[in-house]
Write a structure and sequence with these properties.
This protein is of the alpha+beta class. The chain is 65% helix and 10% strand. The protein has twelve helices and five strands. It has a five-stranded mixed sheet with strand order 1-2-3-5-4, covered by helices on one side. Strand 1 (275-277), helix 11 and strand 2 form a beta-alpha-beta unit. Helix 10 packs parallel to helix 11 (288-308). The radius of gyration is 33 Å and the shape is elongated.
């Protein structure tokens, strides 16, 4: 089972049936307070017709409450529909309380919670006290026990205003997610513009020169074939150099870097709901090839954690270490998941091993994550090391 199949991010609508049930469970767990009206129906203190109508009314109330809160927290509903649903819940709670007794006053707590979960703060801050006032008014009018009324006032106010905070958190999370997507799109657009500028700078002069020499060779060809051949040779040389420049530019764009992959790891783990402990910086004096190998390995390791580990926490460490063979840079990715990733090497670990071999690096794995002992069966730790040749820059 993958984490992304079960977890539902704040402000994200469920996309799978399992996520729907999990979200319903979190919303429905608060229905435990419905025990009072259920007990009142089971006790049989009402006539058969009143019990039947009370059961029907309670089922309708719970269904309307769940649909309203579930849909509103997944995707905002039309304002008029929300207002109508709140009014319906309030009227139904009042009718059931006046008809069947004090045990049904608890329904007003759910009305207040619905207000907090669906209404803007400027509306909820007066409507929640209004719902609570109706609860108190009906309770006093029906000569219900004052201890019960007092006991319900606090949950109604606290539950309602707590849900306003939850609603604001959801809205803020959605806005942050949209802002992150916008920033990513702007970054992609900026990268495209930079690539266009670089290609223009690389190819503009070369293509102009090729065009000029092609025209010159065409004019020389009838009367001066030797000079035309020299121009064609120049064209070939310029074309080959342009091809080398383009390949170098594209390779530079495609080559992953440790700072970029560390940032990507934080984003991927956060999106999967995994608590991440990832370094903010990477050594800036690591030579290009070992850095590229570590960057690819980090990407693959984090992808495995997100897809297969079912982890709650992942820790990435990056530190130099002195060994008998010299100084190395050691990368460790440890999670507290199921620990099954190391039982059978897959294509990912095989690819990491092959890349490490090109730079004389090493790979070790063990079962056991952060804070777990080796062989504990919980978690998985991947440790990679590459020679740390300080002071070497790009090999170009």
């Amino acid at each position: 089972m993958n984490d992304d199949e079960t977890s539902v991010g704040i402000g994200s609508p469920p996309t799978r049936r399992r996520q729907v049930w999990i979200k319903l469970l979190w919303i429905g767990v608060w229905l435990a307070f419905m025990s009072a009206p259920v007990k009142d129906l089971i006790d049989g203190d009402h006539p058969a017709w009143a019990t039947a109508l009370g059961t029907f009314g309670l089922v309708v109330f719970v269904a309307a409450y769940l649909v309203l809160v579930f849909r509103q927290t997944a995707k905002a509903l039309d304002r008029r529909l929300v207002h109508s649903a709140i009014a319906f819940l309030g009227i139904l709670a009042a009718v059931l309380s006046l008809t069947l007794g004090s045990a049904w006053l608890v329904l007003f707590v759910y009305v207040a919670v619905s207000v907090g979960a669906t209404m803007p703060l400027r509306t909820a801050r007066w409507l929640i006290p209004a719902v609570t006032a109706v609860l108190v008014g009906i309770g006093l009018t029906g000569n219900h026990p004052r201890e019960l009324i007092t006991a319900l006032v606090f949950p109604a106010l606290l539950g309602g205003f707590a849900m306003t905070g939850v609603r604001q958190l959801i809205r803020t999370t959605v806005q942050l997610r949209e802002a992150r997507a916008t920033v990513a799109q702007l970054a992609a657009n900026e990268e495209r513009l930079r690539l266009a500028r670089d290609l223009h700078d690389l190819l503009g002069h070369s293509l102009s020169l090729i065009t000029l020499k092609s025209e010159l060779a065409g004019r020389m060809l009838p009367d001066h074939p030797e000079q035309a051949a020299a121009q064609v040779a120049d064209i070939e040389q310029v074309s080959r150099q342009a091809l080398v420049d383009v390949r170098s530019a594209v390779t530079g764009y495609r080559r992953p870097t440790l700072p970029g992959e560390l940032a990507g790891a934080r984003t991927a783990l956060a999106a999967a709901g995994i608590a991440a402990d990832v370094p903010a910086e990477a050594p800036d004096d690591l030579s290009e090839k070992p850095e590229e190998v570590l960057a690819w390995a980090l990407r693959e390791a984090v992808t495995n954690v997100v897809r297969h580990s079912e982890a709650r926490h992942c820790r990435v460490t990056l530190a130099p270490r002195q060994t008998l063979d010299g100084r190395v840079l050691e990368l460790t990715v440890a999670d507290d998941g199921v620990g099954a990733a190391g039982t059978k090497p897959g294509n990912g670990l095989t690819g990491i091993t092959e890349r490490l071999a090109t730079v004389d690096g090493t790979l070790t794995t063990r079962t056991g994550g952060p804070g777990a002992g080796s062989g504990s069966g919980k978690g998985f730790t991947l440790t990679l090391s590459v020679p740390f040749e300080s002071g070497l820059g790009s090999t170009e």
